[in-house]
Amino acid sequence: MATIDLNLMHSFVAVHDTGSFSRAAERLGVPRSTVSRAVATLEESLGVLLFHRTTRKVSTTTAGASLYDRVAPSVNSLMASLAELPEREEEPSGTLRVTSTVDLGVTVLAEAVKRFTVRYPKTQVEVLLSNTLVDLVRDGVDLALRISLRPLRDSTLVARKVGSIAIQLYASPAYLARKGTPRTPEELQSHDWIGFRGAPQVLQAKPGSLGDLGAHARVTCDDMSFAREVVKAGAGIGMLPSFSADAEVAAGALVRVMPRWASSTGAVYLVHPGRKHLPPKVTAFSELVHELLRQRPLAPTDKAGR
């Protein structure tokens, strides 16, 4: 026997329970014609008549009654279970798994998670902080917050820009006192450099550009917070996102170097697997992060989402 569509069985049970195609349609929230077609399709598939139809009355046949006794408990139980799935509820619920780098986790995710769990009490959040790119599908992660200096082009993922970042040159006052303050790209070549693995270390400004400085790095790392601490300790000059360094500048621990020059500005993206039907928890968290970054932009001139 061919596989039977659950919706056909659901329509059949509703007609039996209500004794009417019209009342069954009202219960299911669909047009009467939809219920009528569903029952007719089921009858054709099974090769039996399930209901006697007159202009005044609908009554279940012997075959229909026998089928109802066998399938109604299972159909009703299954439909109730489907309706109670967390992902189908209007209010976000269930566990959200989200990942980001450590610096974004501290700067953005901590506040976003707090707001999310307060706003949606039926949710739980599992945060994975890693400077290694996480495979969202393989690792069962719902959402990632990522920084990129170029547009993301992974066709298997959906990326939404939610903010901008400015990456600039910084050094400690002690380092500049010891090695001098560079004023031009040529002078910068003789300085110690703190490099960030995986990111192009290229200066740009209106007068021109300076090639990749990563080749001259004395120290290379894969964690932006560590890079900031090494620069602050006086090991060299490094490119840091302004959201990571501005508080240290205000405190006098870091100095902005060659302010006319900066690397290419980057963007902050929310990334999720390319699902057709996003769970409410993912949509709600995405909107909350977007809202947070509008209130607290990571770059002074952030215009994302406007």
Can you walk through the features of this model?
There is one protein chain. This protein is an alpha/beta fold. It has ten helices and 14 strands. It has helices at 6-18, 21-28, 32-46, 62-83, 102-119, 173-179, 185-188, 224-232, 242-250, 280-295, and strands at 51-53, 58-60, 94-100, 123-129, 143-148, 157-165, 167-171, 193-196, 203-205, 208-210, 217-221, 237-241, 255-256, 266-273. The strands form four sheets. The protein has a five-stranded mixed sheet, with helices on one face. Strand 1 (51-53) and strand 2 (58-60) form a beta hairpin. The chain is rod-shaped and about 100 Å long. Mean pLDDT is 84; it is low at 302-306.
Descriptive key words:
single chain; 306 residues; 5-stranded mixed β-sheet; 10 helices; 14 strands
Summed up, the helix count is 10
Q: What is the residue-averaged pLDDT?
A: 84
Question: Based on DSSP secondary structure assignment, what is the total number of beta strands?
Answer: 14
> Given the helix and strand composition, which structural class is it?
alpha/beta
| Spatial gap, N to C terminus | 56 Å
For the report, how would you describe the main beta sheet? 5 strands, mixed
The coarse overall form would be rod-shaped
What Rg, in angstroms, do the CA atoms define?
30 Å
Helix fraction, binned, reads 25-40%
Ranges where pLDDT stays below 50 over 5 or more residues in a row are 302-306
User: SSE string, helix = H, strand = E?
Assistant: HHHEEHEHEEEEHHEEEEHEHEEH
Strand content: 15-25%
Adjacency order of strands in the biggest sheet:
4-3-5-14-6
